[in-house]
Design goal:
The protein is of the alpha+beta class. Helices cover about 45% and strands about 20% of the residues.
Length: about 325
């Protein structure tokens, strides 16, 4: 049975939500029966598991980002969304909850971030040295972010990157989600990563090797380290713990941070490898003064626009 046209539009735009490695782990199922009208079960597909994400932090952040992206898309199209959380695990499937869409009531306010959310995308290019507006800084702090010293964070990212490139789990994980096909519906492509041809070829060689020695690992970590070290602002998003519900909520806050950055005319680029490593995550927590750091990203005014990364078609996500 075909879903309402408005729902199809909203769900398709929700698929623009960000996810680590562009894995897009969300799956939707139409609720059956009259009582299920306007309802969709949201599931996290553990078959799209990231081996270097043992706590599923990145996956649950992505689920939260999807929920917030969907809610803002619904508001752009005269609807509202609600979520009935479940968090029930069965085998490789996590039943996150039931999403319901309804028409907005007359006079119901629209979130000011609803419009800018349609323009949000990750930009991995160099940023200029424009100062962040005070209003944006206050908005980020209100959503749980701490602005940290870029040079200090660059040192932590350098250490985490070197450890990761020497870790077969990390390299295998990257290799699984890399694709030279520019039309690949999921995963990372050269265009999506904004890599030059020589950078992409070097990356493919590194992935074939499987584990890099120290000096080569430091070389491959260099690009993100340089981008961080020269950033005007670097932010750490904190959470209270790593429970599923807390991480999903953090994912919603993270998405709102990135949309607020877009609304201010700036861009962001997640570089969270320092919170992926047990050796460096406590140091990030100390630097930011947060109980649990869940994301690190640089902020600035981009020097060129970024291409949109590919997404799975709605037909592959909705059943």
């Amino acid at each position: 049975m075909r879903i309402p046209v408005e729902h199809e539009t909203i769900l398709r735009e929700a698929l623009r939500a960000p996810s680590a490695h562009n894995a897009q782990p969300w799956r939707l199922r139409r609720c059956a029966g009259v009582r299920g009208a306007g309802g969709y079960e949201l599931h996290y597909d553990h078959l799209d598991y990231l081996p270097h994400d043992p706590d599923d932090r990145d996956a649950y952040l992505a689920i939260g980002g999807f929920l917030e992206t969907l809610d803002l898309a619904a508001q752009r199209h005269g609807h509202r969304s609600t979520v009935e959380p479940r968090f029930e695990r069965t085998g490789s499937d996590l039943f996150v909850g039931v999403i319901r869409l309804r028409p907005a009531l007359p006079g119901e306010p629209v979130d000011p971030l609803a419009g800018p959310a349609a323009r949000r995308c990750t930009n991995r290019c160099r940023y200029d040295r424009s100062e962040l507006p005070d209003l944006l800084r206050r908005e980020l702090v209100a959503m749980g972010c701490v602005l940290v010293d870029p040079a200090r964070m660059a040192r932590l990212v350098a250490r985490a990157s070197e450890l990761s490139w020497r870790d077969r789990r990390f390299v295998t994980d990257l290799d699984r989600w890399m694709s030279g096909d520019p039309a690949a519906p999921a995963g990372m492509t050269p265009a999506g990563l904004q890599l030059a041809r020589y950078e992409w070829l070097a990356l493919r060689v590194a992935l074939r090797i499987g584990r890099l020695p120290g000096p080569v690992a430091r070389l491959f970590a260099g690009r993100d380290v340089r981008l961080l070290a020269t950033a005007r602002a670097v932010s750490v998003l904190g959470a209270t713990d790593l429970s599923t519900a807390t991480l999903v909520d953090a994912g919603r806050r993270l998405l709102r941070c990135w949309v607020a950055i877009t609304a201010a005319g700036f861009a962001c680029h997640p570089i969270s490898i320092a919170v992926d490593r047990p050796e460096t995550a406590p140091l990030v927590a100390d630097a930011a003064g947060v109980p649990v750091p869940v994301a690190v990203f640089r902020i600035g005014r981009p020097t060129r626009p970024a291409p949109e990364s590919n997404r799975r078609p709605l037909a592959d996500v909705l059943s």
